[in-house]
Amino acid sequence: MNKIINWYKREKKILLASLLCGVAFTVLAGFHTRQHSYQALEAISAQVVRFHVLPNSNSEADQALKMRVKEAVLDEYHTILSAVGSVEEARELISSNLAEIESFAQNIVHSEGYHLPVRASLELSRFPTKQYGAITLPAGNYEALRIDIGSSSGTNWWCVMFPPLCFVDITRGEVPPDAQESLRALLSDSEYALIDNDIRESDPLVRVRFRIVEWWQDSSPPEDDIILVMGEAFGF
C-alpha cells in the first residue's frame, strides 16, 4: 500500500497534467468541430429557400385551410420556381412577386369561405431538423417564403422551395434526382456530406458534426456533452 501511495505522490503531477491535456484537447476538438459544422450550416442555408405556412390555429378547419393554401401555392408557382438556376434567382423571383403571392393565397382563403387576413413575406425563419427523402437539413435559420394566415398561431407546415424538395414523393421517401443534383452542385463535398443520409451514416465524423449542429441549434449543451460526442467519434 505504501508503495502505491509513494508512487502516486511521485506521479500525480504527471497524471494530472496528462488528464488536463486530454480534456483540453477534447474540448478544443469539440469546438473546432462545432465551428466547422456551423460554417457548413451557413453554406447550406445560403443555398436554400424554404416555404413556411402558419395557420390561424390548431383547429381541424384551420389546419385543413393551411394545407389547401400550401397545395395551391405550390401548384401555382412550382413551374416557374423549378426553372430558376440559382438561389439568388429564386429569392428575386419570390421577393418581386410577394404581393401577387399574398393576393393569390388570400383568394384561396376567401374561396374556402374564410375571412382571415393573409400576409406573405420573405424572411429568416427557424426550422427544426427535417428529412426529405435521402436529404436531411439540420436545424437552423433559413430564408423562407412565409405565409401567415390569421393569427398564425397554429402548428405550421414547411418544405424546401428551392431546390424544389417540396415535391418529394413522401410515400416512397424519394427526392427528385434533379433537385438532389442541384443541391449537390451548390455545396462543397464536405457540406453535402453533412446532409446526405447515406454519406453521413457511413462516416462517424460527419455524423458527429451533424449532431453537434442539432444540439447547439436546439439549445446550448454543457461542455461534457461535446466531450461525450467527441469521445464516441474518436474512441476515447
Task: Describe the structure using short key phrases.
single chain, 236 residues, two-stranded antiparallel ribbon, 9 helices, 6 strands, 60% helix, globular, disordered C terminus
Question: What does this molecule look like?
Answer:
This protein is α+β, with helices and mostly antiparallel strands and 236 residues long. It has two domains: 2-43 and 188-234, no CATH class; 49-186, no CATH class. Helix content is 60%, strand content 16%. It is built from nine helices and six strands. It has helices at residues 2-46, 60-82, 87-96, 98-111, 177-186, 189-195, 197-202, 204-218, 223-234; strands at residues 49-54, 118-127, 130-132, 135-137, 140-149, 157-162. The strands form two sheets. A four-stranded mixed beta sheet has the order 2-5-1-6, with helices on both faces. A two-stranded antiparallel ribbon has the order 3-4. Helix 1 crosses helix 6, helix 6 crosses helix 8 and helix 8 packs antiparallel against helix 9 (223-234). Mean pLDDT is 77; it is low at 22-30 and 220-236.
